Known about the structure:
Oligomer: single chain
CATH topology: Ferritin
Distance between the termini: 27 Å
Radius of gyration: 16 Å
Number of domains: 1
Amino acid sequence: MKLRMDVAVPTSSAWVEAVMKDFNSFLISHAECERKAYAMAMSFVAKYPDRTEIIPELIDIGIEELEHFRDVYQLMAERNLLLPHKIAEFDYAAELVKLSRSTPDERFLDRLMIASVMETRGGERFRLVEEALEPGPLKTFYKELWTNEAKHGDVFVKMALNYFSEEQVAERLKYFNEIEGNIVVNSKISARLL
């Protein structure tokens, strides 16, 4: 089975233009997303401590996301940008999470597929940012970042395959990928990462 689907709907060039016009807002949003990605990995560890096959990898992802947060915060500090006191609402993620099923196993699978889809979108957007940047350290940073994020999309699918059939995983991945594409199409264009 293919471990990651390409995004159902590619990000528009209008989004890239919005980011390039307001890169400071993008950096703040990026930092918020890295904090949330770290928290998501750790929430899997906290909610599913009996899923021992995936805990080491979740810890590794959490550490990597925290390192990304540190690196983005450094970029913000260089621009004298402050973290917001409160993390902004994450409508994009909330739209996906509210579609999770309610039984424990189904919810577990759905959360893994949501994580995969979100990481894949993040990788796609970081690649677009990297391609739009002028050569230099910032471009190099985003190139390294998008290759890591794309890999995370695969990791969550591999985790699911420890517990669910390929058919179950493929069906839910396709479902959330299509829903995510609709969310992106219907979202207002802004300099936010997600």
